[in-house]
Design goal:
Strands 1, 2, 3, 4, 5, 6, 7 and 8 form an eight-stranded mixed β-sheet that branches. The protein has two helices and eight strands. Helices cover about 15% and strands about 35% of the residues. By secondary structure, it is of the alpha+beta class. The protein has one domain.
Length: about 140
Amino acid sequence: MPIVKKRNEQTESRLLLESDEPVELPPAEIADNAVLVQFEKFKPFVPELLETLRAGTTAEPVPVMLDGSTFAVHTATRTFWVKLWHTAKSELARIERAQVISCLPSTRGVQIVVDDPEGEFDDELFDEEEDADNEHRF
């Protein structure tokens, strides 16, 4: 398991979860006060994150961060960007600390349906406009 040992400002050590692939997290033990938030506005959503981590979930790397240690954790209504520290490589079931970097409303499974009951949208017109736009590109 790709976990890297990091020293914090105290004398104890924690292991930072790092991976370029999704990581299956087993149901975890995590204290209510083990979650740090980047912004106060995220605090009301922490119980949902705790519930998901305690039930077990998949942590997906956040590609735009490019650090290998920021993961997206999807809950029922939100997506959290988190960093996770464990107490030992073999102890993914015990999360020592979680840092919430971002918290966004979830859009997983959302479908956008455009209703056109009067047939106002003309596919052929759209295709012709797109072709005309492409003719002017270099």
